[in-house]
Amino acid sequence: MSATSTVLITGAAGNLGGKLRRHLEGRWPLRLLDRDPRGDPDVIVADLSQWGEWTEHFRGVDTVFHLAANAIAQQSWPDVIAPNIDATLHVFNAAMRHGVRRIVYASSNHVMGGYKEREPFRITTDLPPLPGTRYVVDGEQRDSTPYGATKLFGERLGKALAEAHGVSFIAARLGWVRPGDNLAGDIPASREDWFRLMWLSNRDYAQLMECCLTAELAERFVIVYGMSANTGMRWDLEETRRVLGYVAEDDVRRG
User: Fold this and answer.
1) Which of 70, 154, 176, 208 is deepest in the core (most CB within 10 A)?
2) Which residues are marked as active site?
């Protein structure tokens, strides 16, 4: 990919989008979309859950990072249909209409969350999807199945687009990217290892996204995991290294 090729980021004012924007700014031409620009004049207002004029901003774009979503895992179905299903459908359709070359989709570890209490120990990309995770937050049991299922839907739609239209599609099943500095030492000690060990540092996240942007892919559709090199974790990063050349640098256990 040429450094003059335009990159479009959805959810550009959010946690993932903002971090990616800062990493790419000044090196690639960017178009930034978000439902709430949070006062930033460089971010275009776009309610992706509704088809509209915002789709014209995909014209001339080479790569789309679709990061916009309701990112809170413990949601009911009514809370995720518009931002996680309808918006994804519209973004992917806009990309196809305007001949986008590559889509990088922020999927989630929650697509495989059902393996939390199951074998095998190593969670590889060739295992069958098992959306959802049951866990306890503030003494209350939560279930992330609706959220995980919407992310799986996005992956399968991307596979269909890759096969039907030849677009290059990367489904990045991201781990835990906390807002702000996202330092390992700031993670509350009360968080169980399942969550701690899927931590993805800001530095590793930026490297992973740049690999998604620049890697030459042998296949049109790929699934990769996105975590740091956390000692003892169950997530297998070998496919991410093989496909993208990603080599994580940070480890939650080293702080």
Assistant:
1) 208
2) 147
Residue 39 lies in a domain: yes
State how far the Cα of 232 lies from the Cα of 37, in Å rounded to an integer.
Answer: 39
Number of structural domains the chain divides into: 1
In terms of Cβ atoms closer than 10 Å to its own Cβ (0-12, 13-18, 19+), residue 91 is buried
pLDDT digits 0-9 by tens, 209-236: 999 999 999 999 999 999 999 999 999 9
Q: Are 142 and 74 in contact (CB under 8 A)?
A: yes
Residue 227 main-chain phi, psi, to 5 deg: -135, 165
Instruction: Report pTM.
Output: 0.95
CA torsion through residues 145, 147, 153, 158, sign: negative
Give the domain CATH number at 107: 3.40.50.720
Does 255 reside within a domain? no
End-to-end alpha-carbon separation of the chain, Å?
34
* d(C-alpha 46, C-alpha 193), whole Å: 37
